[in-house]
Amino acid sequence: MISEKRSSMLHGVLLITLFSCAAFYIGEMNFVKELSFSPMIVGIILGMLYANSLRNNLPDTWVPGIQFCSKRILRIGIILYGFRLTFQDVLAVGLPAIFIDAIIVTTTILGGILIGRMLKMDRGIALLTSIGSGICGAAAILGAESTIQSKPYKTAVAVSTVVIFGTISMFIYPILYHNGTFALPANEMGIFTGATLHEVAHTVGAGNAMGKEISNVAIIVKMIRVMMLVPVLLITSYMASRAEAKTQKQNGGMKKIQIPWFAIGFLAVIGFNSFDLLPQNLTAFINNVDTFLLTMAMTALGAETSIDKFRKAGAKPFILAAILYIWLIAGGYLLVKYLAPALM
């Protein structure tokens, strides 16, 4: 009986693995590269296409394998994501970038939660959308999803919002910079780009279009935002546990706080990577494996998301994302233009 369950789970995992391989293949196509769509984004699109076409033909016994990919493999992927970062990167850009990143992350997440309440929208979707907009797009949403244990379709909706607005920014930023609308020096433009674009891939795409000097700063500033995922996940986990304790009134209203250990692991990996003990080719290999694992997680989430669930979510998540998008551009620009010079 146990072997049958393992076999059924393996079928689900293999299905997601095949879709992830296809996502990597499609991600190498020129037009996909021009859009700076990572394999993770391609993966969730493939998963959603599958969910809305052939999913009804999937044996129920395969579902645990898909859920394994969207939960366990996701957490491993988040931990290994730390091999892309070092604490030396933080020191390289200095105080202005760190301070502006902290303001952007804090105001975007808290503002998004508040606006979500005003719009009377689902709290889970509002939180995921805000974290995705404020930190690092899909990777942040995946981390938060694993912490608050939201339904897969809510994650897919939130990812969709950051993909749409992040992709728009990736094309708009270089245009506005080259025509003089963004009147910032190269270093400050790099800080602005890294502090406000949604995805790491979007930051790389926009930065490269504006020049190497801007791109180098933008990527480092973006990675500092990624590091801020750890305290955000710890606070989110604490608040979620408190809310659940009040609702269920377990153990006299007190419930054990669920610590997202994968977030601690993520931070520990960053610390280890800062010592530069591994050869670069091994680190590059680990990063490729990590991208594949995160692609599997995204594909699995997509496979559990139907169009009906998008309709259920309605237009409010995209309205929230649009408001946050305007804040990131306008608020981020003003912060960099007037605050960064004062801190330098």
Automatic annotation (TrEMBL):
It is a multi-pass membrane protein. InterPro entries: UPF0324_pro (IPR018383), UPF0324_YeiH-like (IPR004630). The chain crosses the membrane at residues 12-31, 37-54, 90-119, 125-144, 156-176, 217-238, 259-278, 315-336. Signal peptide: none annotated. The keyword Transmembrane applies. It is found in: Cell membrane. GO terms for cellular component: plasma membrane. Coiled coil: none annotated. The keyword Oxidoreductase does not apply. Keywords: Cell membrane, Membrane, Transmembrane, Transmembrane helix. PROSITE patterns: PROKAR_LIPOPROTEIN (PS51257). It comes from the Bacteria. Belongs to the UPF0324 family. This is Uncharacterized protein. The lineage of its organism: Bacteria, Pseudomonadati, Bacteroidota, Bacteroidia, Bacteroidales.
